[in-house]
Amino acid sequence: MRFPLGAKLKRLITTLPHKVKVGSQYVGQGKPVFCIAEIGNNHNGDFELAKRTIEAAKDAGAQAVKFQRRAVEAVFVREMREMAYDNPRSMAPTYGEHRKKLELPIEQLRELKEFSESLGLVFFVTPFDKKSADDLESINIGAYKIASFDVTNLSLLGHVAKKGKPILLSTGGSTLEEIDTAIETILKYNNRLIVNHCTSMYPTPDENLDLNMLPVLRERYKPLPIGYSGHEPDFLPSVIAVALGASAVERHFTMDKTMRGSDHHMSIEPPEFKKMVDDIRRITVALGAKEKRIHAGEIPIREKHAKSLATRVRIPKGAVITRAMLTVKSPGTGLKPSMVDFIVGKTARYDIDEDALIKTDSFEV
């Protein structure tokens, strides 16, 4: 059951801009879809792999790359850190050690930021805790992502929002009421917000994607830009999301889905990402205008195959034209069939051949 926005949130939203600038890119309706390669931890703690993945994302058409940062002790309780983590994706025997293996030092993130920007890419990061957000601010990060799991972490939301940078908020596993509260918390300090529809299942089966929520979120939170963060095995739903109004698309990105690590198995590889971006650009063009137009290329076909009023029999000069004398045939260069009532009862100005078009000078007005 949906409920209306609270009065306070409604007031905050009505003052917002229709687009948000993230780095050098504007995100919002009427702007090119912002395509984000979520590298996350798919660098496996390897700086050189991270650089190669950034280059591959650029070559695949990404406009932005996103990483993650977490202070493991600040994010997970001891029991969870010490939990045995023995599976094909594990990087270490315990979950805490596994997570630490996937972290990069802040100085390496600084280098990756500079490297990404040298390629013309927007570089931003998801902080999972306040210390990580402060570390990122120390390297002048250009934008922040808030993970779905922190939608209800209002303390972190406020902490990040106060930094004044653009924020992308994912909303997987959240209720509308929780999303409302998260947005209101951020907007107290920062109006540069993009809200991503998301389902927090890895990977997400089609029946749980709920892409029809995109127009719901667009209507509920307009003029906030609404994006899509996808975890489906392929990329077709991400393209469909654009048709439903997504202004940004974020996908996990890997050099190789079979690599060991948390997220490779639910990511897409460079050729898939490139095809997704190409399809997004194509569908953006194909969506076209919200008005019915006759295109120049349609006119010759219309003239050849549309219908006009024509004679069923020969009509002699001076005869009163009746409906029985008329029919409808191609081409469409004559009088429209809808003019039949205007023509019936008129007098033929000259002999009109059988099986010929009626012209504007064929009858007395």
UniProtKB/TrEMBL annotation:
Pfam families xrefs: NeuB (PF03102), SAF (PF08666)
Any idea what this protein is called?
A: N-acetylneuraminate synthase family protein
- Domain of life of the organism encoding this protein: Bacteria
GO biological process terms on file: carbohydrate biosynthetic process
Positions of the AFP-like domain: 308-365
**Source species:** Candidatus Sungiibacteriota bacterium
**Which terms does the record give in the GO molecular function aspect?**
N-acylneuraminate-9-phosphate synthase activity
